[in-house]
Design a protein that fits this description.
Elements lengths: L8 H4 L6 H6 L1 E5 L16 H4 L10 H8 L22 H10 L4 E7 L25 H11 L3 E6 L4 H4 L15 H4 L27 H18 L3 E4 L8 H18 L4 E4 L10 E5 L11 E6 L17 H13 L2 E7 L9 H17 L13 E2 L3 E2 L9 E2 L5 E6 L2 E6 L10
Parallel strand pairs: 1-2, 1-8, 2-3, 3-4, 4-5, 5-6, 6-7, 7-8
Antiparallel strand pairs: 9-12, 10-11, 12-13
Helix pairs in contact: 5-6, 5-12, 11-12
Length: about 425
């Protein structure tokens, strides 16, 4: 059978954004894994990285680890796995909660930087079916989300696994070949060598990913594609280190699945990791300050700390903040992927539930101005100033009465951010 897409950027740029994503706008994903056990911020998902690096200035996670669990040389990241039992995990409850929020697509972080796969993997024995919960988390969520009427996505951060652990720490389990399946093959990590910890942590000053690593990166993706047929695959920033031929071959193979599956699919990326137009660019905790000719997506979190996974000391954003984010994105040709960090036992924090309920209440009334719309010729008007940022939260200043626009067929919707003289938000 002739391939519609071939592994070259010229062909891949012809893919475009699926109509379903242009219509659906709003999705939810979850950071939930072994890193959820210690519940320590500021960024809980980076706990396994920082616990082996005392004094690196990342929220003292290493000091917390030693005080709470013991030295990393005696209690390694792998030792959290038996504590990740997920005894209260109910995928149907998650699905109903996310559906009620108005989300149109949802999915898990299938594997974060830590190397632990949250599906029934044959490629990686360090997975949620063999260890920890002993459940195919990705498979259970895929069935529950689709049954609730949402499309299914997976988020993948496993390219970052190459440099995530300090293999130079020969006093810890990260350098033990017996655990290479979790911590990765031993290789030169000059960027994180002891002498350079205080010199900028240059992630690129190290060996490039090996062929074995690259083949494993692809094999994990193939398991997810063949096993769960995701509608969207979201990538974190680590794929910038991968050889270009692996990235192009993946995109071509995944896009060609559309013919076999009879549905459109989408891929997101960060920075310049793919050629412009070959997939959808993602701005983590950021957004654009103007209407763009291309579409894009923001991933942000319900927590107010940048924790991503559940962290005890983190609070939650105001519903109005999250709604404004969605509305502003849509008016500028963007979409919103909202993160929720469940607790290690599988429960969704009450604060996150309140955020999702509030968004759902707003969308029940105003969803017609969001879903199945397209940006109008101007995104808004009024004294709004915003900094466009790719990897940090946008800053809004001097907002008094800005109006934001979106259009649906022959109807143009105007949404006013604040009512003058009132505390209510639109």
């Amino acid at each position: 059978m002739t391939e519609r897409y071939t592994p070259d950027w010229g062909s891949l740029r012809n893919h475009g954004t699926p109509k379903w994503l242009q219509d659906d706008k709003f999705g939810i994903y979850t950071h939930w894994g072994i890193y959820s056990v210690p519940e320590r911020g500021p960024n809980g998902t980076w706990y396994p990285h920082n616990m082996y690096r005392p004094g690196n200035g990342k929220g003292d996670q290493a000091a917390y680890h030693e005080k709470t669990f013991g030295p990393a040389s005696q209690f390694g990241y792998k030792d959290f796995i038996p504590m990740f039992t997920a005894e209260k995990f109910d995928p149907d409850e998650w699905a109903q909660l996310f559906k009620a929020s108005g989300a149109r697509f949802a999915g898990p972080v299938a594997e974060h930087h830590d190397g632990f796969s949250m599906w029934n993997s044959k490629v990686n024995k360090w997975n949620s079916m063999r260890m920890g919960p002993k459940r195919d988390v990705t498979g259970e969520l895929e069935r529950a989300y689709r049954a609730a009427g949402m499309r299914f996505m997976v988020a993948l951060h496993h390219a970052e696994h190459w440099w995530f652990y300090p293999h130079w720490r020969d006093d810890c389990d990260v350098s033990d070949p017996r655990y290479a399946g979790l911590y990765g093959e031993l290789h030169n990590l000059e960027g994180f060598a002891e002498g350079t910890i205080q010199n900028g942590n240059d992630w690129l000053a190290q060996d490039r990913p090996s062929k074995a690593f690259l083949d494993n990166w692809r094999a994990k993706i193939d398991e997810l594609i063949d096993g769960y047929q995701p509608d969207l695959i979201w990538f974190d920033f680590g794929i910038r280190l991968l050889q270009e031929n692996y990235k192009k071959r993946f995109l071509a193979d995944y896009y060609n699945k559309e013919t076999e599956w009879g549905k459109q699919v989408a891929v997101t990326y960060k920075g310049h990791d793919f050629a412009p137009g070959a997939a959808i660019v993602d701005y983590e905790l950021g957004r654009m300050d103007q209407l763009t000719y291309y579409d894009w997506i923001t991933d942000t979190s319900v927590d107010d700390m940048g924790a991503w996974s559940f962290v005890r000391e983190a609070g939650f954003k105001k519903v109005s903040t999250l709604v404004h984010n969605l509305v502003d994105n849509v008016s500028k040709n963007g979409y919103l992927l909202l993160n929720v960090g469940p607790k290690a036992d599988g429960t969704i924090p009450d604060g996150a539930k309140e955020c999702l309920s509030g968004i759902g209440d707003w969308l029940k009334i105003n969803g017609e101005a969001i879903f199945e719309t397209r940006p109008w010729v101007t995104y808004g008007e009024g004294p709004t100033e915003m900094e466009s940022k790719v990897t940090s939260a946008s800053v809004e200043r001097s907002i008094t009465r800005p109006k934001i626009f979106a259009s649906h067929a022959a109807i143009t919707f105007c949404m006013q951010r604040f009512w003058a003289g009132l505390a209510r938000t639109a």
